[in-house]
Amino acid sequence: MSKRIGIETSLAIAETVKLVNVDVVAAYPITPQTHIVEHIADLCANGELDAEYIPVESEHSAMSACLGSSAGGARTFTATASQGLELMHEVLYVASGMRLPIVMAVANRAVSAPLSIWGDHSDVMSCRDTGWIQVFVENGQEAVDMTICSFIIAEDPSVLLPFMINLDGFHLSHVIEPIILPDQDEVKAFVPDFNYKYRLDPHNPVAMGDFATPAIFTEAKWANEVALTNSRAVINDVWDRFYKTFGRKYQAVETYKTEDAETLLMTMGSFSETAMTAIDAMREQGRKVGLVRIRLWRPFPFDDIYEAVKECKNLIILDRALSAGGPAGPVASEVKAALYNKSVKPAIVSIVGGLGGRDIHVSDFINMVDIGEKAIKNNDIKPFEIYGVRG
Amino acid sequence: MLLNGGREINTDIIAIRMHGRGGQGAVTSAELLASAAINEEKYAQAMPGFGPERRGAPVQAFVRISSHQIRNRAEILEPDIVMVLDPGLLSIINFSSGLKDNGTVIVNVKDKDIIPQSIIDKYKVAYIDAMSIAKSVLGVPIVNTTMLGALIKATRVVDIASLETPLNIRFGKLAEKNFNAMKKAFEETIILEK
Predict the structure, then answer these.
(1) Out of A201, A374, B22, B162, which residue is the most buried by the measure of CB atoms under 10 Å away?
(2) How many CB pairs under 8 A join A and B?
(3) Share of chain A above pLDDT 70, in %
(4) Per-domain residue ranges of chain A
């Protein structure tokens, strides 16, 4: 078994891309994602990774190059953030619509204006409906493990969908922490070769992403939806096999100290770890609180979320993105929708915070629980609270 | 477990904040120290003060070290240890902000008189003329690795030998010189107990 080493999460992702023996990487650097592709470029240049590295002139081209390479049957990876993700936006739909198992790491960052290079979830929230499988990781180890699993899930013949791994910009991407990088042999044995049945082949020509009249478009979209929903079985299976092989367990929704909890916090991404420390502190004070963390964002884990929250009274959901002019933060909005038809459900308070890199300390999570419990007790629940805002 | 303003609530975490100027290698110091702790099978975390990199501007880097998994990703507002790489920063930034009462300050100064008396009165202080060591041993005015020797002498957060591997990985053939500068600082650092 490999041992824990101190390595920056971005570099660990790049090393994992090497371990799964990716064929093509097409990317454009953007903060805070740059270290990932920079290190992959190093690995290609020094011969450690035998892959084609395409230094494109924009993210739109990066994703377009990924389309071509994946359609040609090559195992394909890219990474981006923020404006870069927005620039490739229209091509994201093409990747899922053409059923191309591209894997992309997104080091989540705010979207301009005003210009911010710091982290939040605004960038990826505009990509909710692009048809990609999407996970949010909490720490560097999970970033590595999800990268390994993502290729197996995406390339499964019954899935064939692109896969987005979201990691918090700076708060996770730039942190050095203990990470176990599996051995090349372990990964080689665990990750099957990519054998794309429908690949572009001059000897057996096919058309992809072709013109669809109203007679067929709905069916094409429905087929995509069924594939995305059904991918859940493969996701579960791969995470289960990963646990049996590597000993680290991952589930679509995770709970922390939720037994007997009256109030639950809900978070997504690496701030969940700080939230856990806040839960520990509040439990020490005798408060009945727990934490629910969403790992799988698409396909949305409706049943898992209901199971996790059905017995609590108060649910306080943190969003690091603002749905402008809309119903609360995106996570809160979706959780509310998921519970609407249930007869037993908690009161929900939506809190938007941690925007554009603003830190959330342990004491802030405790404050959020106080704010949420008070609003529910006083029957004064607003559409959402924006945490710590001045003016 | 103390609430401690709700920030660094795990008392078994040693929280270290490093102050330097962009280009002086404070972030590298943090990375090397965390890697050394991880090599000792401890848990550790190193992170830069997040943002654009600006040469010459005051920058921060953070390290947490613990015997348990560290579950706090916020920047360190209440450190146990503060290290200042550039003596010029002592008068222009509030480097002791949030430093715990039993905290330690490690500074790079040519002369003890540069250290504010209020700091000497309140905290354990370790000082070293790291610039002279760096210039003579490394031949460059970059004190990040030298200052780690002073930090280890004053706090023993890791064993100095544990820095050897991280230095080799980071600096290759220049690692030995850096290790020598670190050891020299370790030997020559003067500690003023509170």
Answers:
(1) B162
(2) 97
(3) 100
(4) 4-246, 253-386
Nearest residue on chain B to A118, alpha-carbon basis: B51
Contact A44, A27 (CB under 8 A): no
Six-digit token string for A71: 């359609």
Superfamily grouping for domain A4-246: Thiamin diphosphate (ThDP)-binding fold, Pyr/PP domains (3.40.50.970)
Q: Which tokens belong to B128?
A: 């070293």
- The beta-carbon neighbor of B71 closest among A168, A178, A277 is A277
Nearest beta carbon to residue B75 from set A271, A284, A359: A359
Summarised one tens digit per residue, pLDDT across range A159-185 is: 999 999 999 999 999 999 999 999 999
Determine contact, residues A141/B70, Cβ cutoff 8 Å. Answer: no
Q: Structurally, what CATH architecture does the domain formed by A253-386 represent?
A: 3-Layer(aba) Sandwich (3.40)
Considering the segment(s) B4-192 as one domain, its CATH architecture is: 3-Layer(aba) Sandwich (3.40)
What SS3 class is residue A382?
Answer: coil
Domains A4-246 and A253-386 share a fold: yes
Residues 20-59 of A with CB under 8 A from B: 31-32
Structural contact between residues A99 and A208, judged by C-beta atoms closer than 8 angstroms: no
- For the segment B126-170, what is each residue's pLDDT rounded down to a tens digit? 999 999 999 999 999 999 999 999 999 999 999 999 999 999 999
Quick: pLDDT tens for A328-359.
799 999 999 999 999 999 999 999 999 999 99
CB contact under 8 A, B31 and A357: no
Q: What is the pLDDT of residue A2?
A: 76
- How many other C-beta atoms are found inside a 10 Å radius of the C-beta of residue A2? 11
Q: What pLDDT sits at residue B2?
A: 35
ipTM: 0.93
What CA–CA distance (Å, rounded) separates A384 from A365? Answer: 16
Domain boundaries, chain B: 4-192
Question: Do the chains contact at B38 and A5, CB–CB below 8 Å?
Answer: yes
User: Judging by DSSP bridges, how do beta strands A347-352 and A385-386 pair with one another?
Assistant: parallel
CA A34/CA A23 separation, integer angstroms: 19
The string of pLDDT tens digits covering residues A101-160 is: 999 999 999 999 999 999 999 999 999 999 999 999 999 999 999 999 999 999 999 999
State the average pLDDT for chain B.
92
C-alpha to C-alpha distance for B27 and B44, rounded to whole angstroms: 14
How many angstroms separate the CA atoms of B108 and B83, rounded? 8
Categorize the per-residue pLDDT at B4 as very low, low, confident or very high, splitting at 50, 70 and 90. very low
Inter-chain contact B73–A271, Cβ cutoff 8 Å? yes
